[in-house]
Design a protein that fits this description.
- This protein is α+β, with helices and mostly antiparallel strands.
- It has helices spanning about 5-15, 60-70, 75-80, 90-95, 135-145, 155-160; strands at about 20, 25, 45-50, 50-55, 80-85, 105-110, 190, 195, 225-230, 240, 260-265, 285, 295, 300.
- Strands 12-11-9-13 form a 4-stranded mixed β-sheet. Strands 1-4-14 form a 3-stranded antiparallel β-sheet, with no helix packed on it.
- The protein is globular.
Length: about 300
Amino acid sequence: MRDRHLDGHGDRDRAASVPLDGGSFLMGTRDTDGFPDDGEGPVREVVLSPFRIDACAVTNDRFARFVEATGHLTEAERFGWSFVFAGFLPAALRRGAARPPQTPWWCGVEGATWRTPQGPGSSVTGRGDHPVVHLSWNDAAAYCRWAGARLPTEAEWEYAARGGLVQRRYPWGDELTPGGEHRCNIWQGHFPTKNTAEDGYRGTAPVDTYEPNGYGLYNMSGNVWEWCADRWGTQHSDRPRTDPKGPSQGTSKGASKSTSRVMRGGSYLCHSSYCNRYRVAARTANTPDSSTGNLGFRCAWDA
């Protein structure tokens, strides 16, 4: 029998979510600025059952309540380290930090966790309304179970991100900064050495920053990557599908394992020069035990 306190918490989270009718939409893209090798296409018709989804990514405050109630220890805490963007670190932490050869702007920092997102000496004080980061897929799934929720499927995530628009590049349309207005938290300037932060943020922003999309959902582009339920795959049928849940066995992406899970939405580190994956059809993946300082999640529920 589930604890009544947890049922109450799950009801509260669900009540704050947004109900979506589902139905038919066109998933994928033919965008010439896209990454065909990521399996962004083909454009195909997908039919979804009604569901609910968080208006915002899960915040530090929400995750703290989960940890207080359950004692959950994240994988970053158990492993003892996580990846932090080098530009956030003092020289003492940058020196000697392990860096992936293909993405040397990431540093493996001992003591970097959701509580200390920039490593030892940092904290989330004053950032309770920012998205929780340094969470693996497994951590996100554990939170969802506690809240009586689940991670959204990739199809649900894209349907929600589109906000009712058909085959547009972003949740608000095709222009990145309509009328010169920033609509998402991404990198401005020269990546990875200079971020002018013209959108107002160098790191994470509060989860309800900027205008919501047509469904009332915030930050479906930029801010933090969001885990989806699906395993990673790049081969998609162009035939209509109903409530797809991804391949039954994933394929690898940048890792030796074949367990990678889909990530969507892009983050504050995305820039057109190397990673314009803040488009609604863009996608990438990571292994389910991986964590970084730009990766979070939001919950979904059956209707």
